[in-house]
Write a structure and sequence with these properties.
By secondary structure, the protein is of the alpha+beta class. The protein has helices spanning 93-97, 125-134, 152-177, 185-189, 191-201, 212-227, 240-257, 264-277, 321-337, 342-345, 410-425, 428-432; strands at 3-6, 16-22, 29-30, 35-40, 45-49, 54-59, 66-68, 72-77, 230-238, 283-286, 289-292, 298-304, 307-309, 312-313, 350-354, 373-377, 380-387, 390-404.
């Protein structure tokens, strides 16, 4: 007797998702609660577990299909039903072949350009695209993700190593071949046009459907621009004191708490201090009312394989440095593995985005609705500044506060940034609440 596998509840107000990837193919044995498919919603990826132990007897939807909560997407048969299982997915082939612009998608999840091996079945869509684009063998790459799964960074690193070797080999081959062609001067004389023609012949384009997450990001960012009166104000901050504090206490901090002391803990603490003086930055507009929060839930923008996600550090104003750093580090790991839950991304009263980790010098971040403000951090670099009448080099960082001018006045925005600057340049203020 077969057991239906249904789309689980995906979170509040979410009624459907996209079947991003089959993690198991028909005929394969699965254990109870073992993930068999990955669903992509507007915010996160969710794995669908097998309700029972058995074998995959049928896959009822193809990768890329939209499925509603509660819909049956597969059936799990008992051990005796395994032999007939592989025939079931062939019913999906005509649907895939009916699309003239795309090749038929094999229901077992093996793309036509991928090697046929079990590891390919556990590649995320982003990793699969990277594998196909760079023509690397995923079975030869050691994964750094959860349970040894490949990440996009793993594939890019492998591709970089692979590309350097063929380039050198190609140069050697060209050098050996050139002496053997003295009797053909004409093609060499027209070398430039031929080269240009060859380059033009390699011009290609690729169409990739936007993921649900990317579509949601695009919609929300445009919504913010269309709804809020966005304005950005800037300041810079001398990071000397924070860098010295980290250098002095990082070993003790890590030994005691088991986590590295980063910059984010200082900025979250500084924001908590500043929002007490400027509460409108931590508020939101609902209809014709302003809702002020007496707590600070910080949405921390972190990079994930499919785009930027913003898990929430709840009651950050009541947390210690160690609690903040541990929470953010845990979110970063989950984002990389694609295991963030809906609850971990829901809510938030203020956002901090650190573009500096990617090398950004200055930016104008966009607020995360319905929040009214976002703080943008940037890279630290030594710049000449005047201290006590002397020009000296200091590790400086630009700070940017984008805010909804309907709610936050310019004076309040500047005051907020000054409070953050003062706390970072003199971290003692964080301890004595000044």
């Amino acid at each position: 007797m077969a057991t239906d596998v249904k789309v689980p509840a995906l979170g509040e107000s979410i009624t459907e998702g996209t079947l991003a990837q089959w993690l198991k193919k028909p005929g394969e044995a699965v254990a109870q609660d073992e993930p068999i498919a990955s669903l992509e919603t507007d915010k996160v990826s969710v794995e669908v577990p097998s309700p029972v132990a058995g074998t995959i007897s049928e896959q009822l939807v193809a990768e890329g299909d939209t499925v509603a909560v509660g819909a049956v997407i597969a059936r799990i048969g008992e051990g005796g039903e395994a032999a007939a299982a592989p025939a079931a997915p062939k019913e999906e082939e005509p649907k895939a072949e009916a699309k003239p612009a795309e090749p038929a998608a094999p229901p077992a999840g093996n793309e036509n350009a991928e090697p046929a091996h079990d590891a390919a079945l556990t590649l995320s869509p982003a990793v699969r695209r990277a594998v196909l684009e760079h023509h690397v063998d995923p079975s030869a790459i050691k994964g750094s993700g959860k349970d040894g799964r490949l990440t996009k960074d793993d594939v890019l690193a492998a591709a970089k190593g692979k590309d350097s070797a063929p380039a050198q080999a190609g140069a050697q081959t060209e050098a050996k071949a050139s002496p053997a062609a003295p009797d053909k001067p004409a093609p060499q004389a027209a070398g430039a046009p031929a080269s240009a023609g060859a380059q033009l012949g390699n011009r290609t384009e690729e169409r990739v459907k936007m993921t649900r997450l990317r579509q949601t990001i695009a919609t929300r960012l445009k919504e913010a621009q269309n709804t809020a009166a966005l304005l950005t104000t800037f300041n810079d901050v001398d990071m000397s004191a924070v860098i010295e504090a980290r250098a002095k206490y990082k070993d003790l901090f890590e030994k005691k708490h088991g986590i590295r002391l980063g910059f984010m803990g200082f900025f979250v603490k500084a924001v908590a201090l500043a929002t007490r003086d400027v509460p409108s930055v931590n508020a939101r507009i609902e209809g014709d009312e302003i809702v002020y929060s007496n707590f600070l839930d910080v949405s921390v923008a972190v990079s994930a394989p499919k785009g930027l996600v913003v898990p929430v550090v709840r009651s950050a104003d009541a947390m210690s440095f160690a609690e903040i750093e541990k929470t953010i580090a845990d979110y970063g790991k989950k984002a990389k593995e694609g295991t963030l839950s809906m609850d971990e991304m829901k809510g938030g009263t203020f956002t901090i985005s650190n573009g500096g980790v990617f090398g950004s010098l200055l930016s104008t971040p966009i607020i995360n609705p319905p929040q009214s403000a976002v703080l943008g951090m940037h890279r630290i670099e030594e710049r000449p500044v005047v201290k006590d009448g002397q020009i000296v080099a200091r590790p400086m960082m630009y700070l940017a506060l984008s805010y909804d001018h309907r709610l936050v006045d310019g004076r309040e925005a500047v005051t907020f940034l000054v409070r953050v600057k003062e706390a970072i340049e003199d971290p003692t203020r964080l301890l004595i609440d000044l």
